[in-house]
Specification:
This protein is of the alpha/beta class. The longest helix is centred in the middle third of the chain and has 21 residues. The protein is 32% helix and 25% strand. It has a 15-stranded mixed β-sheet that branches. Strands 20-19-22 form a 3-stranded mixed β-sheet. A two-stranded antiparallel sheet has the order 7-8. The two termini are 19 Å apart. It has 2 domains: 304 residues, Zn peptidases (Aminopeptidase, 3-Layer(aba) Sandwich), CATH 3.40.630; 203 residues, Glucose Oxidase, domain 1 (3-Layer(bba) Sandwich), CATH 3.50.30.30.
Amino acid sequence: MRHLLTAALLLASTAAHAQTISAETMKAVTQEISSDAYEGRAPTTPAEDKTIAYIVQRFEKAGLKPGNKGKWTQDVPLVELTANNVAPLVFSGGKAPVSLDYRKDMVIATYRVVPKVAIKDSDVVFVGYGINAPERGWNDYAGLDVKGKTVVILVNDPDYQTPEAKGLFEGRAMTYYGRWTYKFEEAARQGAATAIIVHDTFPAAYGWGVVQSSWTGPQLEQDTPGDHLDQSQAIGWMQLDKAKALFAAAGQDFDALSAAARQKGFKAVPLGVKASISWDVSIRHQASKNVVGILPGTQKPDEVVLYSAHWDHLGRCDAVKGDDICNGAVDNASGIGGLVALAEAHAKAGPARRSVVFLAVTAEESGLLGSKYYAENPVYPLAKTVGGVNMDSLNVIGKTKDFVITGAGKSELEDLVKPYVAAEGRVIVPEQRPEAGSYYRSDHFSFAKLGVPMLYGDSGDDLVNGGTEAGKKAAEDYVQNRYHKPQDEYDANWDWSGAVSDLTIYYRLGRQLADSGIWPNWYPTAEFRAVRDKSRAGQ
């Protein structure tokens, strides 16, 4: 492997350093598609057509070719489910009834494509972290039958409070078992009628406002045969204080049971209360679109290097001071700006040996649906996809001295990127908030699950101008005050030097992959190594 890396570096060195990344392109694209005219870029709305048309226009202008057999787009079949007439979630049978109001105290939804959901007098069971991990000797559902029941689940992993990123569940570094998507998947496998996660800001890594804006209004799912009837009838979240009230009404101590749930061998606790809720569901079947552009290769056009970013955001959302458009300027209009800027840079450098594909995916905010659909229905076979880079929310606060690889320790792309980080005068540092589970929260994960190595990294907190304190303050301000809120709007005063530096790294890495014959793999210990080896074995 080492001699391949050296040869690839030498081969790529001239072309990789030849182009600069246009901050003006990133500014123009971000400002345009995050304007109110695009109404927050919700998939399957009229705003989608406008967004897709603009991205196609910019791809074409950059010098790309249509990437899907002569077409610019790939249809992604989706179904839109909207909850109406949501009754309170009522827990009865305890010392006193506990009633939770929609949006304020809880959010509720369903994956099932059905016109009405009604849960009545469902037995409630506290299942701790809701994890079944036989390889780690952990099963919160051991000896338990939850068919038709309501399970209450804690967010994140049992050892998330560990200061270091090591332990049975990687300590501070969230595993997929800590991600809310896994918890609902496992509850469905166990037959639970309802699955409710208790929201707690620190282990969730975001406040209730993010849950409220993301889980209310129209919800998108993949439109597949079977209408998701294998899923739980109801899934949702409840506020922490309401969970404590529920446990008190059931004669239980929430804090004590939560502490017990962190210990191996925890046994689920029936709360002796029953849950009831109902609502109507509006159903709308239609397709959204991924946008696919390509710079065809000269010698190995069937082998592709992939850049991805999601174009969608939340659309209309809960109003703040009269503003109900979640513009998604940083998340992720900036990523699309970066995708266009990279397309321009690669096109100006001319075709590489391999093809370079630029993929703007839909419905990331709805659960990575666009990237999942592409990965499961690839235009270019995944076995022929060398690897690539995903971008989700660029740095607009200035250049940093550091660079963070999200989910580090997984693939050989991390070795390949090191010299390009150093060339920018920067150093690679560990994730500051591994408990956020960022590795499982963006589109690279759709490809990783099916074996394709994808780099997901960005600027750290150590600003060249201002240092770590200023960087952390800016990051915290964004998460608390703008992330998934109407305040995520374009600002002409943003400093794009950090984004330029990050994208310079991404460009050089992508160019190296495209101009060489190297095939990066996952490290032997990575959970995605086996599927990659199997995929590549037939080539």
